[in-house]
Amino acid sequence: MKFVAYERAMQGTGASRRLRNVGKTPGIVYGGEGQPQLIELDHNALWHALKKEAFHSSILEMDLAGKAGKVLLRDVQYHPYKQLVQHVDFQRVDANTRLHMKVPVHYVNAEESQAVKLEHCLVNPVVNELDVSCLPKDLPEFIEVDLSGLKKGMSLHLADITLPKGVKAVTHGKPNPVIVSVVTSAAEESAAEGAEGAVAAAPVAEAKAAPAAKAAPAAKAAPAAKGGKEAAAKPAAKAPAAKPPAKK
Fold first, then answer.
1. Is residue 60 a contact partner of residue 2, using CB atoms and an 8 Å limit?
2. Mean pLDDT across the chain, nearest whole number?
3. 8 A C-beta contact, residue 71 and residue 90
4. CA spacing 20 to 30 A to 22: which of 66, 125, 179, 242?
5. pLDDT band at 229 (very low <50, low <70, confident <90, very high)
6. What is the number of other CB atoms lying within 10 angstroms of the CB of residue 158?
7. C-beta separation of 39 from 64 below 8 A
């Protein structure tokens, strides 16, 4: 990417404030064999450039006083609540000196993996950028990672991905960190727990139902038997006595 910068003679808090008031952003270029160079940039052009991923992770071509130079964006200072870039830092690039940069990671084909397509899992990216060391000519704009081979319960480590030629990862003491993990969705976990609970409850329900089924006939027979005893114990009703004939 290319951008235009202008030499800046004034420095200090007051001078920087005046630049911002007229739509300019103060900055500095350092590193390499030259001395630090004060610069200023058009704020609107810089604001839109900062929205592009490549402006943060690739080698930039800076046009300064009619001379082109290669630099890297090293720091951006934003206003706490305004849409305002307060200051930018750039570093000169030496073709023979290795760079240490953070490069974005782009994950592709996750929806085609067995974990997502068949097993309904979720792919959880652990890192979205990698620290790398390389020569300027080998610096990639981003690193692409293919997730089509993921399965349930898998984790993708740094050693499982192929880095571009000439690029080495800087792991800060972690030899093989996790890049992506596969997790089960909440809906799948609830369904699995419900199925396990139903299977576990089935024998208990059967065990409770068996004594109840055995007791049911006895309960039905009891009233009949009781009624039979009461009928046997109850004396038969006496026939009414014959009335004497009426006297004439």
1. yes
2. 82
3. yes
4. 66
5. very low
6. 16
7. yes
Between residues 203 and 116, which one has the greater pLDDT?
A: 116
Residue whose token pair is 């139902």? 209
Looking at this protein, which amino acid is placed at residue 111?
A: E
Question: In this predicted structure, what is the pLDDT of residue 101?
Answer: 92
Question: What is the identity of the amino acid at 173?
Answer: G
What long-range pairs does 6-15 form, CB within 8 A, spacing at least 24?
A: 6/39, 6/40, 6/41, 6/64, 6/65, 7/37, 7/38, 7/39, 7/40, 7/64, 7/65, 8/38, 8/39, 8/40, 9/38, 11/38
CA atoms within 13 A on the CB side of 69: 21
Query: Which amino acid belongs to residue 43?
Result: H
**Rounded Cα–Cα distance for residues 121 and 115 (Å):** 5
61-104 tens-digit pLDDT: 999 988 999 999 999 999 999 999 999 999 999 989 999 999 99
Return the higher-pLDDT residue of 20 and 248.
Answer: 20
